[in-house]
Write a structure and sequence with these properties.
Length: about 400
């Protein structure tokens, strides 16, 4: 965004437009997938970008954009059948990047719905459950969330869930709380993971938020990151869920939950790469227009050094996430590879967005210039879907043969 310093700037020469896809990764998509990608880019640039700062500042979700997202027909991207659009993992990732390049919260909203909620049903649901839930979710007539994290249980979810499930005939009674659940304050369907008190195994349940007695959600306030995503604290008090809504096909232990998280964890790698791209492009545009000492600051060596380092971080992350997509499409992606991708890209995102804020000086902390939003959002990406340290311990166990977990 031009500043008052640039009002009299002459158009002496045409400067390169900011482009964070320096090695043309989008060109690796086939023609049909590039057309889908372009539709997403058009929507994000024409409808999301002009209003997103306002919603970020107000800690609100732009519900008026939902019809436009429904028209994209991308709910359940990457899932085959059941009204879902399918698509390669490369397309899934590049769509995530494109959304996050404009706003990481929108990418998170979409990822929670399509990959965590729908992905749980697609991976662990029965055929009847898939037929019932996936088509309306693909049309985004029903929006989902994913309830794993708890107020006192984050990294220790594998063995420490406190939310319990007790079977009583054809009904399961759930008690407990979930916290930091994206989309929860307003969505229709929650995938809830709870510990079966009889066999001590983690099981998954489909809960219809608005019609299930004993199920309530409180919106979390005062966040400083991913403010457009509405996070909630879910409380279940003797919440009765029919056996028909238990994910019976492939959710018998936490290992099955981890299978869902494997794909979404490396999706965060795409998001954090897109977050870097957005910050870089805004910083570059600002540097081209901001005058100091009679010249655009983009002409200064120190600014160019920062911009080049930012682009190098972005490109390194793009290379990593593209390779994870290839492995995922081949059915070869491991938990360790997904963990390394998530850890590396989110740590580089923190570095890149801090350099972008540095380029803007004091203006870097104003939402008006966009970079401050990316700067804050990168902090949430760094921690959610598994902290940086936990991801490194997953990798460390794989490469050393020793577990350093408590």
């Amino acid at each position: 965004m031009p500043t008052t310093d640039t009002a009299s700037k002459s158009a002496a020469k045409q400067l390169p437009a900011p482009n964070s896809d320096f090695y043309h990764f989008v060109d690796t998509l086939n023609a049909d997938e590039r057309a889908i990608f372009q539709r997403v880019r058009t929507l994000m640039e024409s409808k999301v970008a002009p209003i997103i700062n306002k919603y970020w500042v107000e800690d609100a979700f732009p519900f008026e954009l939902l019809p436009a997202f429904m028209e994209l027909n991308l709910g359940g991207l990457g899932i085959q059948g059941y009204g879902c659009p399918g698509g390669s993992q490369l397309l899934v990732g590049l769509i995530g990047i494109e959304m996050a390049r404009i706003d990481a919260s929108i990418a998170t909203f979409f990822g929670v719905h399509s990959f965590l909620a729908m992905g749980s049903i697609a991976r662990a649901g029965s055929e009847e459950q898939k037929q019932k839930w996936l088509p309306p979710m693909a049309r985004m007539e029903k929006i989902g969330c994913f309830g794993l994290t708890e107020p006192l249980v984050g990294s220790g979810a594998a063995g420490g869930l406190t939310t319990t499930a007790k079977r009583e005939g054809d009904t399961w009674v759930l008690n407990g709380q979930k916290r930091w659940i994206g989309n929860a304050p307003w969505c229709d369907i929650s995938i809830i993971w709870a510990r079966d008190v009889d066999d001590n195994q983690v099981k998954g349940f489909i809960i219809e938020n608005k019609t299930t007695p004993g199920f309530s959600v409180e919106k979390m306030e005062n966040k400083i990151a991913l403010k457009v995503v509405q996070n909630g604290q879910i409380t279940m008090k003797d919440c009765q869920v029919p056996e028909a809504n238990r994910l019976a096909s492939g959710a018998q232990s936490f290992r099955d939950t981890a299978g869902v998280l494997r794909g979404t964890r490396y999706y965060v790698g795409w998001e954090s790469t897109g977050c870097q791209m957005g910050a870089y492009e805004h910083a570059l545009k600002y540097a081209q227009e901001r005058l100091q000492f009679g010249k655009p600051i983009a002409s200064f060596q120190l600014i160019q050094d920062l911009l080049a380092k930012m682009l190098a971080n972005i490109t390194a992350c793009q290379c990593m996430v593209v390779r994870t997509a290839q492995l995922a499409d081949e059915g070869k992606l491991t938990d360790q590879q997904a963990a390394l991708s998530k850890a590396f890209t989110t740590s580089k995102a923190r570095e890149t967005v801090s350099w972008a804020r540095e380029v803007l000086g004091g203006n870097g902390i104003l939402a008006d210039h966009n970079v401050g939003r990316f700067f804050a959002d990168a902090e949430a990406l760094y921690s959610y879907e598994g902290t940086y340290q936990m991801q490194n311990l997953i990798v460390g166990k794989a490469i050393t043969g020793f577990s350093a977990f408590i």
